[in-house]
Amino acid sequence: VVARAAVPPGWPRAPARHAAAPFPLGPLAPRPSQAAARAMTSVDRVGFLDTTTQSFFAESYRKEEQRRQDFLEKQYDAHEGEGEAYVPPLTLRQKAELAAEREAEENARRGPPLPAGYSRDEDSKLIFEMSKKMNQRLNPGYTIAPHAATSKADFTYDEDELDPVDKTHFRKRDTFSQYVEAQARFSLLTKKQKNSG
């Protein structure tokens, strides 16, 4: 007969079929890892004794606790100024050398400095012009020729046909607006080709 520990007040009692369970239902140990090992592998949880699983979990939790304890001891020794984890404070010369090394690594990562008088705006302008030129070659909808009127009716003024000019979103037509319009025309052309084919 296995002797059961007293169950603290407020804890559930085991059913009658688990009366001979070897583990109590109350708090088991002050260390949470052992309590978790017993709770995960106890007979109360699974209903039968699985010794292989129980030993595996118990060993895992024991090793984890040992590693944690070793780590804390090393940290404590380092705080006290002894042990293998202790690193003596850097001198001013060592700090200066370390800062110089870090600065050299950062400069090597960044690459060579930009030439004098260089600005990012020039770079973005160049990229924009390259994009425009490439698009002119590839996009059949990119026509920058001015629109010419071909009939006399284009020159007649009709009030019903034209709305009054709203200057809220008025913008002068420049190369960027032509670029955007050409992109829209190109996307429409590709949509028409996809739908027709």
TrEMBL record:
<feature type="region of interest" description="Disordered">
    <location>
        <begin position="57"/>
        <end position="122"/>
    </location>
</feature>
<protein>
    <submittedName>
        <fullName>Uncharacterized protein</fullName>
    </submittedName>
</protein>
<feature type="region of interest" description="Disordered">
    <location>
        <begin position="1"/>
        <end position="33"/>
    </location>
</feature>
<feature type="compositionally biased region" description="Low complexity">
    <location>
        <begin position="13"/>
        <end position="23"/>
    </location>
</feature>
<feature type="compositionally biased region" description="Basic and acidic residues">
    <location>
        <begin position="94"/>
        <end position="109"/>
    </location>
</feature>
<feature type="compositionally biased region" description="Basic and acidic residues">
    <location>
        <begin position="60"/>
        <end position="82"/>
    </location>
</feature>
